[in-house]
Design the sequence.
């Protein structure tokens, strides 16, 4: 089992470009999450999905959109990237209250 | 504002010593508490979770919870250089469905 996978691993964007970060899990968990982590800071929740077909905002949703495509997949979209969105993005899947993280996507916006 | 506070460190301990990592939280209604370990450049991995006041032991790790003081800690006995990492405390929000609020983490350095 791969657990939680994320693509791409690393991406460089120019300001104003768009992209979608992909996340998939094979653990059959209902809940999935997107976080960002900036240097010296903890993880901040961007969006989450408690179950297939539902999504909700977290602490820092501005500038992002999400899609829970099915139970396995949860994508994060940046419509118009800004330098402030340079960060490491982690997807997580949860069974109950515990969450398991993917390897992360490092995003650099120039 | 719900907050989880941790000392950023680094906390430096010699190999074989006990490392004590601390975390305080502001939401008195928080129910569940988690410790994650994150190696540099890697993703967080769950070490332990605790729900009830008192101690919970798992191998060299002990989580301690004091809800009255809004305080949770992680003790690492017989610290090893491989324990050198950032340790993230996380708290489950009582008013949500399994959302976690993370502290900024404490960097632990175990000296050989």
Sequence:
């Amino acid at each position: 089992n791969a657990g939680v996978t994320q693509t791409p691993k690393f991406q460089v964007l120019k300001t104003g470009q768009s992209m979608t970060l992909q996340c998939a899990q094979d653990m059959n968990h209902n809940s999935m999450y997107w976080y960002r982590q900036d240097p010296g800071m903890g993880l901040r929740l961007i969006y989450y999905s408690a179950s297939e077909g539902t999504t909700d905002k977290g602490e820092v949703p501005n500038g992002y959109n999400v899609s829970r495509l099915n139970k396995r997949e949860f994508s994060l979209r940046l419509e118009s990237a800004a330098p402030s969105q340079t960060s490491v993005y982690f997807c997580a899947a949860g069974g109950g209250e515990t969450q398991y993280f993917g390897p992360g996507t490092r995003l650099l916006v120039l | 504002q719900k907050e989880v506070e941790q000392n950023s460190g680094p906390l430096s301990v010699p190999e074989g010593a006990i490392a004590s990592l601390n975390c305080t939280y502001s939401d008195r209604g928080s129910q569940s508490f988690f410790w994650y370990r994150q190696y540099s450049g890697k993703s967080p991995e769950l070490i332990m979770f605790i729900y009830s006041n008192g101690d919970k032991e798992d191998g060299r790790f002990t989580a301690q919870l004091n809800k009255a003081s809004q305080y949770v800690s992680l003790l690492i006995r017989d610290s090893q250089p491989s324990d050198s990492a950032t340790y993230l405390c996380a708290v489950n929000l009582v008013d949500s469905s399994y959302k976690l609020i993370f502290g900024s983490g404490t960097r632990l350095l175990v000296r050989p």
